[in-house]
Write a sequence for this structure.
């Protein structure tokens, strides 16, 4: 299996903690947590939870939960600076001087995805298969939103449009999002399921639309798609009432 070295920037350790491979896999299964860790390594100076929240379009509570998880694993340390005029010291997070060896096995998901899509398409008529894909996509979007905001934020969840755009970009979408407060417009210049879409277009597109609705916490009836790559347009354009 190929190995990947993940170097860290110098930091101030809080004891010698060596996370197990299983702990690392669990921690970095969250893409946003991995991005936060990389950001801390690149900064080289303590970052406040509020600064991390602003950087990644997160709720402050969610950012702090991710940072504390990294601290529990010994990957991040705490730096407290007293304010010149008194008051509670500021709490900064800094990547420690630790080098990780992460073994990443090759992934072979495309064949499985094709088989599952074929099974879904063969088991249901086109309309029912699309409805089922949309429901699965919505559940996936809701789960991603819950991961972003963290366990301490009660539902129902409604992500900010910019937070959805950030998630999409981290997930490989060439996405641009805007909102006037009542309507969100999301344009996507690529298809992250391009290998699967030609044969299973209706199912794949329904899943994608459901994901957006789940991320934004809206019903599928609030969504309208005006352009689609699968229909030959230069981009997908989603209009969603908030």
């Amino acid at each position: 299996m190929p190995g990947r070295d993940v170097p860290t920037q110098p930091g101030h350790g809080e004891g010698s903690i060596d996370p197990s491979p299983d702990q690392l896999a669990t921690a970095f299964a969250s893409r946003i947590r991995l991005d936060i860790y990389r950001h801390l390594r690149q900064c080289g100076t303590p970052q406040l939870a509020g600064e991390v929240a602003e950087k990644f379009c997160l709720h402050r509570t969610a950012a702090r939960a991710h940072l504390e998880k990294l601290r529990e694993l010994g990957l991040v340390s705490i730096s407290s600076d007293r304010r010149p005029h008194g008051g509670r010291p500021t709490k900064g997070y800094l990547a420690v001087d630790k080098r990780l060896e992460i073994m990443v096995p090759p992934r072979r998901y495309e064949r499985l995805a094709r088989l599952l899509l074929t099974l879904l398409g063969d088991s249901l008529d086109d309309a029912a298969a699309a409805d089922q894909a949309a429901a699965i996509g919505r559940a996936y979007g809701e789960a991603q939103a819950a991961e972003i905001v963290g366990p301490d934020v009660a539902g129902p969840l409604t992500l900010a449009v910019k937070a959805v755009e950030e998630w999409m970009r981290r997930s490989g979408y060439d996405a641009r999002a805007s909102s006037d407060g009542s309507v969100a417009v999301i344009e996507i210049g690529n298809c992250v399921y391009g290998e699967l879409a030609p044969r299973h277009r209706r199912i794949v597109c329904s899943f994608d639309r459901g994901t957006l609705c789940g991320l934004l916490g809206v019903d599928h009836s609030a969504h309208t798609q005006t352009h689609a790559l699968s229909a030959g347009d230069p981009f997908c354009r989603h209009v969603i009432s908030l």
